[in-house]
Structures are given as C-alpha cells and as structure tokens.
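To fix ideas, we quote verbatim a fold written out as tokens:
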Amino acid sequence: MRYELIIFDNDGVLVDSEPLSNTILAAYLTELGHPTSYEDSLRDYMGAAVHRVHDLVKERTGRLLPADFDDTLHARVFAAFERELEPVDGVTEVLEKLAGDGVPYCVASSGSHERIRVGHRKTGLSRWFEDSVIFSAQDVGRGKPAPDLFLHAAERMGVAPDRCAVVEDSPLGVRAARAAGMDVYAFTAMTPADQLPGATGYFSRMAELPGLLA
C-alpha cells in the first residue's frame, strides 16, 4: 500500500450516525426557535464540531444557544445511538484487511471522545480502535474545515501528512484533508460526489475502498 497511515472520519464513515444525529439536531434547533430541516442540518453541520452550530446560529440570528445546549444534544444523540446505531456496511471488512496487512490506521472525528466511544461500543467497533488511535476535535483548537485535527493525528501517529490518506464523507472533512496536504477519498453513500469537490477519489461502497488505497 502506498500510504503509511489511513485516517478515518467517524460519523458516516465508520458508524452510520449522520441520519440519526442530524434528525435530532434539526428537531432540537427547531424546538429552540431556529427552524431547521434535516436537509439544512446536513448542509450546514455534517462533519462539523458542535461549536459550528453555536457559531452559525449566532451569526444568523444574533442569539446564543442555551448554556446546556451541548449536554442536551449529546444526551439525545447518545440515547438514539443506544437504540439504533449500526456500523457502516462493509467497514468491518475494511478494518480487518488493514489490520491483516499491517497498515496503521486511526480515527479523527469532529465528535467528542465520548461520542466516538459510545458509537464504537454500540456497533462493536471498539475492538479495532484503542484509545491511542482515537483523535477528536476536542484535542485541537479548530475543527474541520481547518486542517488542525488531521495534522494532529498524523503527528501523533508519527507519519508525514503526504503519506496519509483520509476517508471522509462531508464537504468540511474533504476541505480539511486537502488543507492538511493529504490525499482524501470521499465516501458518497450519503453525499453526492459533486458536493465533495477536490477529493483524490470517490467510492459509494466500502468494498471499493481497499482498491483505491492500494
């Protein structure tokens, strides 16, 4: 394999969480007086850390979200995860192949460490990701689309950025990977390729990914 490190986004790439989390986020914002559709949430917040929600709401309305917004949102999302979350179809086989081939990999997610672990525990992916290979936007000053998180993950894993491949499914994530000087492979199961410009390659099924990385 031509890459020394594969960096996975989490939501929508490893765990099929985007429909759940964006449905809940849209409903909660609407409940608070900020009408938001599911499509609005995907467009504005998919792949982003929660601070982006605060930033955009303040920018657009001049109003602050409640002090307990993050805690309430996370509680609702985690409850949905416990009921319904599944791994992305085919991702276990990809992880098995990488591990079998001795290719290092990690996860770099806009979600909190707690969110990552809750999702991995529910979907059975915990066995593939030790704490030392889990990186969150909590670990850096700026989340995606800034390159900070991907650069942090590469540094901690001891691999130069140009030897890394990122697996992403959001426009913000693709932009962050390109800004970090990394190749990025865009998963188009939820987001069409024309909304993910600049990717190194595109794939719609996880079974296609190993061939792209080879």
Notes: The first helix runs from residue 18 to 31. Residues 5 and 104 are 5 Å apart (CA to CA). The beta strands are 5-8, 105-109, 134-136, 164-168, 183-187, 201-203.
